[in-house]
Specification:
The protein is of the alpha/beta class and about 375 residues long. It contains 16 helices and five strands. The chain has a five-stranded parallel β-sheet, with helices on both faces. Strand 1, helix 3 and strand 2 form a beta-alpha-beta unit. The chain is elongated, with a radius of gyration of 23 Å. About 40% of the residues are buried.
Length: about 375
């Protein structure tokens, strides 16, 4: 055998050894807690919900799932448990569409939850790529198939995270490593499940959520240069088709699971922006509600809540950082409304809240600056 051939074999052998070592490290440390809850090493979590949720579903005890978009991302599981009841698992994903949400929920159904709290709005039912074409969602991790497990175990990036978690578990190194774990270099900076994607205690809520910010956002999206944004993704036929596949399909497959579905308290300015700058979009929103609400209330395992009409919140622009994203104080109000059933949509009159919303939008006038 030539010297070059020997060197090639040695190189390949070393490469295989490194790959196998990385796989063994990832299996033992298990950064996502994909195979087992953390025991040997301190649990760490990533704010990347699309990835982290695959591990949370497998490692966390829960009987209630909390799902939604960025409007449901800052809730604390401890608040959900305390106010609504049960043992919750937050699987909300910023910017997620209904196809992603339904896929993740379907994976979580294998753990037999008794309840799903699902924040919906018309925007999530926009046309979206098939799950396997979604570059942001590691679908095979949720399927737990050979491809997904291999991509996890043989990931060099995950091995780096495993080494970091391993180092953080060594007492003399823990203070230094903890200071360096900032979520930029290393992707698992969170040490408590309850803190995943929540606002820091020192976050300036008043500086972020205020009337000036929401009015500025309103003026920005109604500017003729930008107002076409309001219509993006709003196609009634596509929305109905997606709604039937992702929402109704999941509900029908899980008749023993209680679904608490709520439409969040957007500020009134979201609808007024459509009224003033995109009338056709507002009609689609109304038409979609007129279709979806009677459809959802047909199911006895669904309780539908419409918080879009809670005027004392939606008309108080100080509650918002733009025209839709509400403050943590409103998060707590949402949980209390879910617990009390104060804004449950009547099965006998499923369009009553929609009529209220229409009247509020028609009557609203912006105050002069």
């Amino acid at each position: 055998m030539s010297a070059s051939a020997k060197r090639l074999i040695q190189f390949l052998s070393a490469a295989v050894a490194i790959i196998l070592l990385a796989a063994a490290l990832n299996f033992v440390v298990d950064p996502l807690q994909y195979f087992r809850p953390a025991r040997l090493f301190a649990a760490m979590y990533s704010p990347d919900s699309r990835m982290q949720d695959a591990g949370l579903i497998q490692s966390q005890p829960f009987d209630t799932i909390f799902m939604g978009t960025s409007l449901a991302i800052h809730f604390r599981q401890s608040d959900i448990d305390r106010i609504v009841g049960g043992r919750s698992l937050k699987l909300s994903m910023t910017g997620s569409n209904s196809h992603e949400q339904s896929f993740v929920l379907a994976a979580a159904m294998a753990r037999h939850p008794r309840r799903v709290i699902w924040q919906m709005d018309d925007w999530i039912f926009r046309d979206a790529p098939e799950i396997d074409a979604d570059i942001f969602l590691p679908a095979d991790l949720y399927r737990r198939n050979a491809k997904g497990i291999a991509s996890y175990l043989f990931s060099g990036a995950m091995a780096r995270e495993s080494l970091w978690i391993l180092a953080r578990s060594i007492p003399p190194l823990e203070p230094v490593v903890a200071r360096l774990t900032n979520g930029v270099i290393f992707k698992f900076p969170i040490s408590r499940v309850d803190d995943i994607n929540t606002l820091r205690p020192d976050f300036d809520a008043a500086g972020f959520y205020n009337a000036q910010a929401s009015i500025a956002a309103f003026r920005r999206i109604t500017d003729p240069v930008r107002s076409s944004y309001l219509a993006e993704g709003f196609d009634y036929d596509a929305m109905v088709k997606t709604f039937e596949r992702d929402a109704i399909g999941l509900i029908e497959k899980n008749p023993d699971v209680k679904f608490d579905i709520y439409f969040p308290p957007y500020s009134i300015l979201q609808f007024v922006a459509m009224r003033d700058a995109s009338v056709a979009t507002l009609k689609i929103v109304y038409d979609f509600s007129a279709y979806a609400f009677p459809r959802l209330t047909q199911f006895l395992n669904v309780t539908l809540h419409d918080f879009r009409v809670v005027k004392e919140v939606t008309h108080d622009l100080g509650n918002y950082g733009d025209v839709i994203h509400h403050s943590p104080a409103v998060d707590l109000k949402v949980l209390s409304w879910l617990a009390s059933g104060q804004y449950v949509v009547d099965r006998a009159a499923p369009l009553a809240s929609l009529q209220q919303l229409k009247a509020q939008v028609e009557a609203y006038r912006m105050e002069k600056p």
